[in-house]
Structure formats: C-alpha cells, structure tokens
Amino acid sequence: MKPLHYLFIVTILLTSCKPEEKSLTAQQIIDKSIEVSQVNKLSNAELQFNFREHRYLAKRENGIFVLQRITTNKPETITDVLNNKGFQRFINDKAIQVEDSMAIKYSESINSVHYFSVLPLGLNDKAVQKKLLEDTNLKGEEYYKVQITFAQEGGGVDYDDVFIYWVGKEDFKIDYLAYTFHVNGGGMRFREVRKEHLVNGIRFVDYNNYKSQNLSLELNLLDKEFENNQLMKASEINLENIEVSFN
After folding, report:
1. What's the rounded Cα separation, in Å, for the pair 46 and 244?
2. Rounded distance, CA 127 to CA 71, Å?
C-alpha cells in the first residue's frame, strides 16, 4: 500500500496540472455569437425578406443604413423608408407628408422588425451595455445569460427596454431571448428559436413568441416559466424568401 502522504502529494500535483476553465466576459460571449452567426457580413450588404404581409429591405454600408418596408395593396404600393436622416413615406413612388406622431410609430415598427431579423448584429453598438448573469440550464442545455440595456444617448426612443439572451455554451448560438417593451401598454416577451435558415453562411432564425400573464414576474425568470409550460404562445415570427447580396 502506498503511503498516505504520497497519495496526497500526487493528488495535489494532478489537480494543479488541470487547466483552469477560463471564464468569459459578456463582451466575449457576444463577440463569439456574432462570429458564429456570421451576421457581421450584413454590415456591408443588402438584405431582403418577407415578414407577414410586408417585404423588408435593408442596405447597410459602413454605418450608413436604409431600412424599408414595402406594402402592396393594389393599386397602391406604400414604401416606408427609415435611414440615418429620419423617416419618409412614399405612395406609388411619390413622397407624402406624415404627422410626426405617426412617423415615430412607423419608424419604431420598421426598426423593430429589422433589429430582430439580424440578431446578434447590433449588440456591439455604442449605446449597448452588457452584463453577464448567472449561467443556467434550459431544456437540458447549458447557457450563458447576457443582459442588454441601452444608454440614453444613442439608445433610441426605446432605450429603457431590457433584453436577455440565452447563448449556448457549446455553440454560442442564441436559442432564446426575452425582453421588456413599453409601447402599446408595455409588457414582456420570451422567444424560442424554432427554425434556422442559412443564407450565404449567415444564420437567420424563426421564433415562437410567448407572453406571461404574470406581469409582476422578473424578466430574468421567464426561462423557468417557459420550461414549466407556464407561458402562453402569442405568435410565430417567420422570415421568408430571404435574400442577401454584398456591396
């Protein structure tokens, strides 16, 4: 039998030789997620897709962007355009005047669809503030949880919204997200990726969109309600006819 002091020394040596698991920061996790999804390609590209009854177009080039929503109701075609300078509406290619309150409403709607369509692109914008929450297990998979808030300066009209992203520890893909919103009475939503689309190597996703009837619930706990089947399915978010071309 080996002396106990010898075994103790060997155990210490073996333990000290094990590489320590390197903890990642929230910034590093988001960087890896962007890299895996290859959405950075969209920073200088043109994107088109269908969502519900609209056709959406986005052109981005070195920080300059033009976001469009096209609605065709024959004989009219309504084209809403949001860019670095502001909002403009066209009916059959003719510019029309829109009240400021409605321009804000249309801008928020267009920006929201385009924002979600290219996630995690945008999570490294200057106004974005990242915080690493406690890791979690969801549906048998291990996830990092990253909370996103926004600085008031540069954060847009919805700067006080809060997002949480569940990023897979193995593949760094975002499989779930939750967020608060304040328009139309406000509330919370939890999204589950239901389908992936790979277009030119870029990951786009469709979601199941859920809501909670418990309005006092903390956003951070929506994943537990989801796992316990306590959330109500509100809608599906499906991107169709996705096209990407590079500038």
Report:
1. 6
2. 31
At which residue do the structure tokens 């897979």 appear? 168
Question: Which residues lie closer than 8 Å to 153 by C-beta, 6 or more apart?
Answer: 127
Q: Which domains are seen in the chain, by residue range?
A: 24-246 (2.50.20)
Give per-residue pLDDT as tens, 81-120: 999 999 999 999 999 999 999 999 999 999 999 999 999 9
More confident residue, 59 or 19: 59
Tell me the pTM: 0.87
Q: Provide the 10 A C-beta neighbour count for residue 32.
A: 17
